[in-house]
């Protein structure tokens, strides 16, 4: 791959010690991306730095045959910590989370930088992984929409290279315990409520965030209790009721969220489950296959 050492980050990235690069899995593009961490991206050294290469795919999971190793290196390493990197859908903007309250947005063609701070309220901070781009435009555009998911809600920022600005467009106030996001469908689920038992769904399509009717459960919903999966081109939320042996499947539509299946997986209550999808089959790791169309023990909600 390159000379030096590879370090995997618990926050989802990888650093190459010795050649000044950072790599991360970009869910929006379903690929490993890498970026030279030269000083042109560093707020301290940017004034004296030379412009480096843009972010480039290291491995594309949708087109594995086109993937290749990239050996270009940069002369200088970024000095400021990087928590998270997210590339916009049109690959024109790069969001670099520098701390739990601050994000640097770089327009890659011009290397112009804009800064975003989450709202300065007591206890507010950006949640882990809570920097996402809206599917505003796949084609190269002068503006894109960036969302920060914080403890106190959603912050919608509009980034414009034409206006050379990054402005707060809208906020949605709610206390957030956990969140789930599927970039392929622009679906965001937020756990809220005093008991963490309310799920607020959002559709991040176009220039706005559309809120759907919320789901209310009898007990709190943890990160492990709920998963987003794509089946037959549709997005589903899979809820595992730890007090029983059932899985509940909710179809996330354009206007509402509907419970469409109740699956009995024949496991002891309290069993933790993970899921994978192969050929539109939902596969709980500790259970047999479950097909939406013909699953044993399947029933309507």
From TrEMBL:
<feature type="domain" description="Regulator of MON1-CCZ1 complex N-terminal">
    <location>
        <begin position="74"/>
        <end position="165"/>
    </location>
</feature>
<dbReference type="GO" id="GO:0035658">
    <property type="term" value="C:Mon1-Ccz1 complex"/>
</dbReference>
<dbReference type="GO" id="GO:0010506">
    <property type="term" value="P:regulation of autophagy"/>
</dbReference>
<dbReference type="InterPro" id="IPR049040">
    <property type="entry name" value="RMC1_N"/>
</dbReference>
<dbReference type="Pfam" id="PF21029">
    <property type="entry name" value="RMC1_N"/>
</dbReference>
<dbReference type="InterPro" id="IPR040371">
    <property type="entry name" value="RMC1"/>
</dbReference>
<protein>
    <recommendedName>
        <fullName>Regulator of MON1-CCZ1 complex N-terminal domain-containing protein</fullName>
    </recommendedName>
</protein>
């Amino acid at each position: 791959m390159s000379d030096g050492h590879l370090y995997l980050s618990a926050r989802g990235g990888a650093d190459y010690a010795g050649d000044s690069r950072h790599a991360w899995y970009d869910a929006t593009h379903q690929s490993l991306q890498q970026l030279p961490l030269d000083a042109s991206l560093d707020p301290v050294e940017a004034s004296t730095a030379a412009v480096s290469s843009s972010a480039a795919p290291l491995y594309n999971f949708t087109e594995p045959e086109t993937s290749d190793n990239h050996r270009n290196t940069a002369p200088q390493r970024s000095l400021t910590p990087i928590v998270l990197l997210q590339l916009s859908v049109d690959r024109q903007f790069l969001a670099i989370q520098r701390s739990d309250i601050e994000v640097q947005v770089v327009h890659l063609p011009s290397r112009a930088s804009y800064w975003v701070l989450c709202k300065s309220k007591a206890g507010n901070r950006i949640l882990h992984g809570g920097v996402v781009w809206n599917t505003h435009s796949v084609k190269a555009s002068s503006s894109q929409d960036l969302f920060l998911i914080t403890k106190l809600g959603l912050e919608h920022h509009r980034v414009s290279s034409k206006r050379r600005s990054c402005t707060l467009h809208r906020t949605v106030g709610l206390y957030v315990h956990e969140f789930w996001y599927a970039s392929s469908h622009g679906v965001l689920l937020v756990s809220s409520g005093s008991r963490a038992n309310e799920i607020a769904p959002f559709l991040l399509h176009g220039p706005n965030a559309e809120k759907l009717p919320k789901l209310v459960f009898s007990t709190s919903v943890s990160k492990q209790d709920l998963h987003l999966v794509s089946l037959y081109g549709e997005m589903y939320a899979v809820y595992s009721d730890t007090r029983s042996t059932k899985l509940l499947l909710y179809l996330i539509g354009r206007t509402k969220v509907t419970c469409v299946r109740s699956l009995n997986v024949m496991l002891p209550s309290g069993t933790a489950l993970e899921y994978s999808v192969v050929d539109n089959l939902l596969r709980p790791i500790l259970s047999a296959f479950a097909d939406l169309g013909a699953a044993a023990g399947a029933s309507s909600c």
